[in-house]
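Input set for joint prediction.
Command: fold jointly, output tokens.
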Amino acid sequence: MPNYKEIFVKTDKCTGCLTCKIACAVEHSETKSLFSAIRESPGPVSRVYVEWLPGNVKVPVLCRHCEDAPCLNACISGAISRSDTNAVITDASKCIGCWTCVMVCPYGVIGRDQTFAKAFRCDRCPDREIPACVGACPTQALVYETVDGFSKTKRKTVSRELLTREGA
Amino acid sequence: METRYLIVGGSAAGMAAAHTIRKKDKTGIITVLSNEETLPYFRPMIPYILTGKKQVSDISLSGTGIFVQPRIDVRTGTIVTSVDPVAKILTTTSGKTWSYDKVLFATGSRPYLPETVKGLDSPGVFSLKTVADAAAMAQRSRNTDHVVLLGGGILNLKAAFALLEKKIKVTLVVYSPEVLSQLMDPEDAFLIRKALDKAGLKIMTGCSADHVVTDADGVCAVALDNGTQIPCRMVCVGKGVIPNTECVRGSAITVDKGILADPFTACSVKDTFAAGDVAVTHDPATGEKTVTALWTNAVDMGICAGLNMAGIPTRYTGTLGIMNATQVAKEPFVAMGRVHTKGRDLETHIDKTDNTYRKIVFNKEGTRLVGALFIGDITHAGMYRYVIREKKPIDRIKSHLIRHTLHYGHFM
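tokens >
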């Protein structure tokens, strides 16, 4: 199976600035420009969520595009499919707003457009090389990488930290 | 030699199993026998066939979602009459026999028609269950200005809205004190009831049909048990469903209401499996045996059965007897697990505003989440389902569950 890129979250780097949310909302607006997007009706909505935990930990949450995706299995209208880049996507034209996907998503990352009764979620920005949230994140708390690439970088970082701590 | 997989039933469970088997077994022979004349389709979409907004080809399963695997031979219009699970042979109405190595019974369910109501076999009486039903209803509705729907469940509400969209007057006759009684207590339903009333649905609760009155053109009225008669040219019955177990009756396969399935979706005889509406499985919220009729559950169980049939032992996590999400009259709602709390010893938390209603249900010790009902705002409902179904420890998240401030970070 090809090695696809995913969006990884480094909670230790997130400052909770919400730049990702703005970038996401703008990318998914009609006009794709912040200045005109804020005047759109209905207003553009982010598909990234930033939650808070005690200890001032910020947790960006977005669709994990699960390997065994409950939403994909559950959809009753055939609107959810796996794209050729391995993303789980909702086809708004087929979505009937029954919210079964919302009921089965354990991450709580499927939003509801209540004006048009359509479900929406992270689509990894198919028109961009790097998803908008990742591109906008000023602290690199969001990373667009393959699983292999990400764990390699992580291993390097951890060993470097260990070495530093041991005074090497 | 290639394994011969035979699947009886071409809807959610059967097709999910077929595609799952194909994913794991590239060479096996997969044959699906469907009693319907239509190729497999998304059954929950049939109200759109009734309104005419979609054609049968628009709701076809093939090529969408998980139904993208090749080489699945679907035989429509094929009705299985009996099985010999020892000789591994199925017989159909045409007398043709089918040999198999492994068989899945995903025969689904059919509408329950109460025997106490006379005349339900008259022309003009329907249940919205198949594409053929939807098409027949659409046909009859052309000469109908008033439809009486018996039963206040989701299926009938969907049918009601489809008919309202066609500018046909609709009266819902509900025996229970309130609509959706299977999914919530009467007190919980007030927001939905308000929305239904506003949408123009006429609802009569606490009464039921006694018999259907007919003339030369079929149905002409419904006589209620309270002595009144409602003139109408069409009736739609939505009083629940019963599992289609006929084809295994008389065989060694154990049937108790539905076909009994073990935790690995297997029936009582080797190499036979059951999934979907016809299967009796367990409810993780109550621990009791359950039969459900929900697309999503059927797909889940079908996938699990497919894995087991392909030789990958997979435990089925069970189905919440109550689990439903939908939107009626612009009012979204989700009901999961134990939501009927009236007169029961359960720890219940209710929170209501002018346009939202939330009921969170714990066991009586307050140590486990067993049910949740959301109306108006269903945000994060999936996390509640996860906690119920996986029996997650709740000591650290209980206040978040109650105040609806739960988010994924709490599981980290």
